[in-house]
Specification:
A six-stranded mixed sheet has the order 2-3-1-4-5-6, with helices on both faces. It has one domain: 3-Layer(aba) Sandwich (Rossmann fold), CATH 3.40.50. It is globular. Helix content is 33%, strand content 26%. By secondary structure, the chain is of the alpha/beta class. Helix 5 links the parallel strand 5 and strand 6. The protein is built from six helices and six strands. The structure holds guanosine-5'-diphosphate and magnesium ion. Guanosine-5'-diphosphate binds next to helix 1.
Amino acid sequence: MSNPVQSSTQPIVTHRPYTHIAKAVVVGDAAVGKTSLLVRYVKGLFNPTYVLTIGVAFNIKDIVVGEHVLRMQIWDTGGQERFGPIRQLYYRGTKGVLLVYDRSSEASFDRIDYWLKEVKKGAGAVPMVLVGNKADLPSKVPAQAARKFAKEHSMFFVETSAKDDTNVDSAFNELAKSILNAVV
Ligand code: GDP
Ligand code: MG
């Protein structure tokens, strides 16, 4: 399948103003690699030490999709239960979601159903991408099971490594495409 989205491995040099703006959120259990994926995507970096994300933070990236330029405001938050009340606010106005689990942790995949329900409650039926991160580590979650789940919920599925920079761009770019498809 050809990918019309420009790769952002190189910074996207565009002087074109954005044509659309949307809020996207990254969710999943603590330590699955949400912050690492975002930092890899937006800054092209990887930090091997775990820094607990407190509260929320967001990053901005302009993504060229055909004749459109989508300005994605990508929100990151801690997956911790104790941030529950913050999370409901965080979903407000969300137009797309990256649902992340850690391929080396079955428990994190089992929790995807929980995250899906929580996000739907807070944001409604918005486009989502299922992401199996840490593809550089031995897998405990069969890709087939994840693919089946994604298909059942009409989501794109991709296995990534924030560490090795594998498929990180395509995860976010697919989300950008789905968000645009929903509005144009
Ligand atoms: P978050 O709690 O979901 O935001 O997770 P972090 O991004 O803070 O990552 C948790 C830990 O997993 C950190 O030690 C990261 O360095 C590590 N990590 C994140 N992504 C990857 C990856 O793709 N591969 C490997 N091997 N480790 C990763
Ligand atoms: Mg984090």
